[in-house]
Amino acid sequence: MRVAGALSGLMANRTKFQAIKGTRDLLPPDTELWNRVEQTAREVFGTFGFGEIRSPIFEPTELFARSIGADTDVVGKEMYSFDDRDETSISLRPEATASVCRAYIEHGLHAWPQPLKLYYLGPMFRRERPQKGRYRQFYQIGAEVLETVQPGQGGTKDIPKDAAVDAEVIEMVMTFFARLGLEGAQLQINSIGHAAENCRRGYVQKLKAALEKVKDKLGPDSQRRIVTNPLRVLDSKLESEQAIIAGLPKISEHLCEDCAKQYAEVKRQLAMRGVKYAENWRLVRGLDYYMRTTFEITAKGLGSQNAVCGGGRYDGLVELLGGLPTKGIGFAIGEDRLILSLQEAGKGGAAAGRDVFVAWMGEKAQAAAIAATQRLRTAGFRVELPPVEQKFGKALGQADKLSARYALILGEDEVATGLWTVKTLADGSQAKMSEAEFLEKLRNEVKK
Ligand code: HAM
């Protein structure tokens, strides 16, 4: 068996392990920023009425194939799929929209107050070529709004409502980015219409015909896409193809009346909310479930992988997965990229540090130091208590290394008098005070 073989191999050569290519460990103090970002997401999304969903990290392979599309790069080349012991194929989730729709159907969430607003945070898995901002295990912060169409509703009548929902979802991401102080976030929007002859299907035929004419000037990837997914040619970043793509027919000129109206209304709604955007007719996105509104947000300091958020509308996906006719709109933020961009802009935050380092000396002082530490921690302060006695100089050196704010010096004298010696490490000043006075000082001076 492969596992047994791997085990005996390891015993023999004592392999030094490394994280698998494209995966990485997140360590302090970086994880403080990760936590701050996630906490801010929870707070901001909460103010828009979103609740959290936690879905499994693996799902049936078929769920992703049907939702994202069998011909997409994500499903065709990038999924981690394997046979379970009962030989059903399962995959590590490459994204979470499909899982949210599955959960919506499975738990009958159409019966909950509508529209249903859910957000999620967590790892996703795609076997892409790793580079800056691109990993095989990466993290997304996403949100979805789902609404099952009631009898007598839907169609043209819903255009203003759908457009307002689209705009509010986009406004929420931009609010979140602004709250984090993310600089240079740029929103691009587009409409890719809907799958009908008088809309996207008709456009794709025209696009295909135009592409066939210039086929010889395109690279192998785009040539292949003329057959598998012509829209994706518009996504090409190849320098040599840019001029050719600029001359191709544009979808905005081929939208049906309803899709055109919806797109115009989304732009009006964004303007009403003070959300700045640029239109990009080439923004088609790489997943098959989208229709009408698509959007992406780029951020600074990321190099070529500068998309920090992608999303769009996906009416019909729930139905495709066996549920009722349901509308959907959502986005996912690449958290790794968001963090990178914040760090590049110097918004990473200070190193963890300690509020208090307890420098204790003498056996009697240890019991007092433990009790003092317990009370300070209960009050919410970050306290380092050395496990063994240290010489004074060494203790202060360590307090400094840990970026402690105060050293609490506890020797026989302090224990006997009940007055603590408190040293402020920034300026070396020292003062005697009672425990109550020290707590008061910490409350006033340390931001919790
Ligand atoms: P996506 O564009 O495939 O959309 O991914 C969203 C974001 O995830 C990207 O903009 C990027 O920031 C990040 N991302 C994707 N792949 C990687 C990677 N290999 N390494 C690092 N970051 C990555 C979706 O996943 C859709 N489910 C979004 C959505 C939700 N649409 C509607 N609802």
Detail the topology: elements first, then pairings.
Blueprint: H1 2-13, H2 30-47, E1 51-52, E2 58-60, H3 61-68, H4 73-78, E3 81-83, E4 89-92, H5 97-106, E5 116-125, E6 137-148, H6 159-180, E7 186-191, H7 200-214, H8 220-228, H9 242-246, H10 257-272, E8 278-279, E9 291-298, E10 307-313, H11 317-320, E11 326-334, H12 335-344, E12 354-360, H13 363-378, E13 383-384, H14 392-401, E14 404-410, H15 412-417, E15 420-424, E16 430-433, H16 435-445
Parallel strand pairs: 1-5, 7-8, 12-13, 12-14
Antiparallel strand pairs: 2-4, 3-4, 5-6, 6-11, 7-9, 9-10, 10-11, 14-15, 15-16
Spans with pLDDT under 50 lasting ≥5 residues? none
The radius of gyration over CA amounts to: 28 Å
Helix content: 25-40%
Secondary-structure content class: alpha+beta
Dominant shape: elongated
Number of helices: 16
Could you give the distance between the termini?
53 Å
Q: List bound small molecules.
A: histidyl-adenosine monophosphate
Looking across the biggest beta sheet, what order are the strands in? Answer: 1-5-6-11-10-9-7-8
> Roughly what is the average pLDDT, rounded to an integer?
94
Largest sheet: 8 strands, mixed
| Beta-strand content | 15-25%
